Amino acid sequence: MSNSSSAPSSPEGLAPTGIAGLDNILNGGLPERHLYLVEGSPGTGKTTLALQFLLSGRAQGERGLYVTLSETSEELAQVAHSHGWSLDGIEVYDLVSDEGLSEDAEQTILHPSEFELGETTRDVMRLVGELKPHRVVFDSLSELRLLAQSALRYRRQILALKRFFAQLGCTVLMLDDKSVGEGDQQLHSIAHGVIHLNQNVNAYGSDKRRLRVVKLRGVKFRSGDHDFDLNRGGLLVFPRLVAGEHGSDFDTQPISTGTPGLDELLGGGLAPGSNLLLAGPAGVGKTTTATSCAVAAMRRGEKVAYYLFDEGLNTLRVRSRFLGLDIEPFIASGQLLIRSFDPAEVSPGQFAHAVRDAVEKDGVTMVVIDSLNSYMQAMPGGQYLQLQMHELLAYLNLRGVVTLIILSLHGVVGEMRTDVDLSYLSDAMVQYRFFEARGNLLKAISVVKSRTMRHETSIREFRLGPDGVEIGKPLADFHGILAGTEAYAGTYALLGDSDTTVPAR
């Protein structure tokens, strides 16, 4: 059949899928005039992806056809309506009609034959020949596989359809629910490209979905797993972050934390393009230190993104105001972007996507992650989270962003530990400790590591007051820290000696 009836190709010869993240992964879209396989178990989002593909074509003036063996046209319309879409202008064809389910047709429905398979493929070819669509979706191949009864006959029918679609210049998506198990190699070898959708069921929280482009001939696509959400409005795909693609020039001059004593401990302040890990037990002041650094940056006119995983936004607001670090004006002005993530709902790709948007679209120069423990626990089913965090931190470093990461340690006094050890990823690390002196439980701070600055090795007293963070002189007589039995036996005045009480966190 002649190619004269086919649609004119775009300059790049690509068919955008209508899903921005997926098009990014595909390096622009699917090469036109080829057959593609979209596979995944029921509920992973194949139908939604296919509808977005056809709607994208409709927006460009292309004709679309949805051939269904597994859903009725009414069910398909309901799916589209649930996303706020209309299928006007897209032809939907039920291969299994009411007549096909009648008593007269019952025997062939229950006992598939070569004749019935031939009728099915002829119906598809006739319809495509009449409509001459630019984009076609065939849903689903599991029914065609049952009709074929043998692998040889099935392969021949798929090859016949592939040749026919190619002659008309159609771009085709064939959906497969993987009813034959993991990876139908017959289909993989025939298709020009394969997109695999996966859904992980967690013990708690929402299911996590991932997408992988298994193959795509002639295109350098972004390989690996990519997280995606399936919500009202369709698929939202988060391409895997590759830090090396996002480098930029920036000023490396250290910036102040807003607290002179902390600047001295760090060897001059915070280095742009580096990350600082704030590690210590609960209640010692890690979050307030990060807030103090953020407020200092915003007072200089910078923008800050603050990501909360465990503390409530209202709690942060109230406590910050009590400590003289009111963040409300910065929220109102748009300088402070705060986003609270539900630990049971977020995926690594979604989080990285949010951070990228803050940096690239909103001009954020400082990022706070509170806390690393909750980030790791938020995605218990996720693999390689440490590598993903490494990639995210590398990206932020290459963009010249200062990143503050809060890490909670188990325990209050004595030996402390953590279930998450990412200290090797940090460029600098501040460690907090409780210690006892003169019948009081006080706090100490020290910098145990810095790759970018010549930091102090002393241990200083630390406290929170109505003016925010206060850091005292080095505690020369502080001992027992390595043994996990920290104590202070000095005699000179401590920060709290003039007070009757020590302010709480």
Structural notes for this entry:
The chain is an alpha/beta fold. The chain has two domains: 14-240, Rossmann fold, CATH 3.40.50; 244-488, P-loop containing nucleotide triphosphate hydrolases (Rossmann fold), CATH 3.40.50.300. It is 31% helix and 25% strand. It has 15 helices and 22 strands. The strands form four sheets. It has a nine-stranded mixed β-sheet, sandwiched between helices. Strands 14-13-15-16-12-17-18-19-20 form a nine-stranded mixed β-sheet, with helices on both faces. The longest helix has 18 residues, at 114-131. It is elongated, with a radius of gyration of 30 Å. The N and C termini lie far apart (77 Å). Mean pLDDT is 85; it is low at 1-11, 99-115 and 500-505.
Task: Show the helix and strand layout.
Layout: E1 14-15, H1 20-25, E2 30-31, E3 35-39, H2 46-59, E4 64-68, H3 73-82, E5 90-94, H4 106-110, H5 114-131, E6 135-139, H6 141-148, H7 151-168, E7 171-176, H8 185-190, E8 193-200, E9 208-216, E10 225-231, E11 234-238, H9 260-266, E12 275-281, H10 286-299, E13 304-308, H11 313-322, H12 328-333, E14 336-340, H13 348-360, E15 366-370, H14 372-378, H15 385-398, E16 402-409, E17 428-437, E18 440-450, E19 460-465, E20 468-474, E21 478-479, E22 487-488
Parallel strand pairs: 3-7, 3-8, 4-5, 4-6, 6-7, 12-16, 12-17, 13-14, 13-15, 15-16
Antiparallel strand pairs: 1-2, 8-9, 9-10, 10-11, 17-18, 18-19, 19-20, 21-22
